[in-house]
Amino acid sequence: MSFNMTDQDQITNRSESAQGGKAVIEIKDLYKSFGDNHVLNGFNMTLMEGENLVVMGKSGSGKSVMIKCLVGLVKPDSGTVKVLGKEINSLDQQNLDELRSDIGFLFQGSALYDSMTVRENLEFPMRRHKEKLGVVADTEPLVREALENVGLAHTMDLMPVELSGGMKRRVALARTLILKPKVMLYDEPTSGLDPITSKEIIELMRSIQKKYGTSSLIITHDVDCARVISERMILLVDGINYAEGTYSQLSQSTDPKVDAFFKK
Ligand SMILES: Nc1ncnc2c1ncn2[C@@H]1O[C@H](COP(=O)(O)OP(=O)(O)OP(=O)(O)O)[C@@H](O)[C@H]1O
């Protein structure tokens, strides 16, 4: 289904391309099956520089498979996946690792290492991606800045067990920000959090995007999160980008498959 845009939105899109918007992620005609389970059937997606794009899909619709194709953890059957101008499936391991250091992840299971302090958790990616930051003699200023971004500088020497669920998620976000990623991938960033903590995380995501001009792909079931954060949305149904548009366009659709996403 191709979603009908209003005249006003068509004008907005034209002016965006006139400003020379750059694609940071381009997925074209992506197919992936596991045996007879045809998960992605020609999925297309473009994330523009500085954009917040939300992808929604039912449980089992292939959102995680799509993200895994994006970071080279799953090999597609066919189609192309370009991230920051590089075709993922043609990169060797070293170039793939380098590219991954420009991609920040906040996944449902973005667990902190329980045996390490908050500071040590944040130092970990710095050691892992030395090629990006070089050898950092004094890690404290970077750790502090990353924690200040999420309002948790005072937790630097605490252990994860001493933090609430929302605080852990914020530290996980700080840990990914320390590498100054160009693209952020969020997989269910508010799942398992109460509404107030969810709101705090969404606000943080917005402030980070503003501060660093990061482009973000957000996978969520949370309609409120999608409403607040998305500039554009894609609904993944039957392995394709079934509908695309702004929150207000999609939430007013009379198509039953689209409408089902917005029913509480
Ligand atoms: N490695 C794999 N081997 C076989 N089947 C797989 C594999 N990975 C995913 N699948 C199948 O692909 C389909 C899509 O799974 P995926 O995890 O992408 O769903 P999802 O949309 O992320 O769901 P949820 O919202 O519940 O996390 C499912 O039917 C799943 O069983």
UniProtKB/TrEMBL annotation:
A GO molecular function held by the record: ATP hydrolysis activity
Name of the molecule in the record: Phospholipid/cholesterol/gamma-HCH transport system ATP-binding protein
Membrane-spanning intervals of the chain: none
Give all residue intervals belonging to the ABC transporter domain: 25-263
SUPFAM superfamilies given in the database record: P-loop containing nucleoside triphosphate hydrolases (SSF52540)
Q: Which organism is it from?
A: Arenibacter palladensis
Superkingdom of this protein's organism = Bacteria
Stored PROSITE patterns:
ABC_TRANSPORTER_1, ABC_TRANSPORTER_2
Keywords (A to Z) from UniProt:
ATP-binding, Nucleotide-binding, Transport
